[in-house]
Amino acid sequence: MPSDSSLLRIMPLAPASLFSCSQLTSLVLERCNIPALPPSFNGFPSLETLQLDVVNFAENGEKTFEALIAKSPLLRSLNCQYPSISGDDDDNGGNYCEWTIRAPNLKLLSFWAWEDYGWRVYDLPQIEEACVHLTGPDLARFLPGMTRVKGLCMVITVDTILEQLPYFMYLKDLALHTLLTKSSQVLSMLCILRNAPNLENLHIMLVQEQEDTGDIEVNMGLLDAQGTVGFFSRLKSFQLYDSMGHKNEMCFIEFVMSKATILQEIEIYIHEYSSKSMEDVYDELSQYKRASPHAEIIVNRYVPLFADYFISIVSACTNDIFIFQRRIRCTLQSLMYVYT
Question: For an engineered disulfide with 53, which of 30, 93, 147, 217 has Cβ 3.0 to 4.6 Å away?
Fold first, then answer.
């Protein structure tokens, strides 16, 4: 099997002539090496959409990456999936110089990466929707630049605790792919929720680990210690997908129900391998104190392809990624177990 470096060499090189196409409005680069920008590069003044899928930037490509975005002043949509920069961790110990994504007109951002190459996001004044999957401390450098985001999808599976975050005053829809079995992930999630006072819709897809973690319980004292006054004060809808019905999951559900004063609906999707039936889950939920006594409780059967559907919605990052609740309800109507 070839090494990663040989795979990069196999990938074709983007032609230098590309950077003289100043009238481009949309650019898609897939599985190619991107060379350093030529001195004559004056930017893409008309570019509105940029998609980078599994591309590799030449050594010191941070500057190329930064300039490519900064010199596209009309950029409205950026979709970057698993980029890399030559001069990997073995060469520089993973210590990349910090550089900044500056895009004053960006409205849609989708950014997925396995490695941290030093990027951070400068204030995005026009941002509306963002989907972010980062696995290191770079997540904490991304979020401060997206305070105006209205719809946000995030993957939180790292141990870095997100602290000292700004307020997301415009955030109405939040979709998280995370665990409830580690205190670091729970605390990071709480930090985001605490700083989103106008959140209306919360969707959480749980990551189920290979080993049995059912006995790990979220300490309610830990939740209440986070300064939870006003938590979920505008939350109307809460969905939890792929639940096993473990103590930690039920504890978090109870926490939400006890804080959300205008909650209209709570939906729980039970994993097919859960030892609890839908009736068991509903009976337990019905015993919890509700800050909103009229909230409807809906317990759904597990749908095998549902997790893949959720991920496809999250990764798409299109204008309608946050209205999938309505479509799901239509397609799963016959499988729903509804209690009022």
Answer: 30
Residue that the structure tokens 């897809």 belong to: 205
Structural domain spans, the chain: 1-126, 156-340
For residue 27, give the 3-state DSSP assignment.
strand
Task: Name the pTM for this structure.
Answer: 0.84
Residue-wise pLDDT tens digits, 86-109: 865 445 545 667 889 999 999 999
The CA-atom distances, in angstroms, between 246 and each of 241, 250, 273 are 13, 6, 12
Q: What is the DSSP secondary-structure string of 30-94?
A: ES-EEPPPPTT----TT--EEEEES-EEPTTHHHHHHHHHHT-TT--EEEEES-EESS-HHHHTT
Task: Give the number of residues written for the chain.
Answer: 340
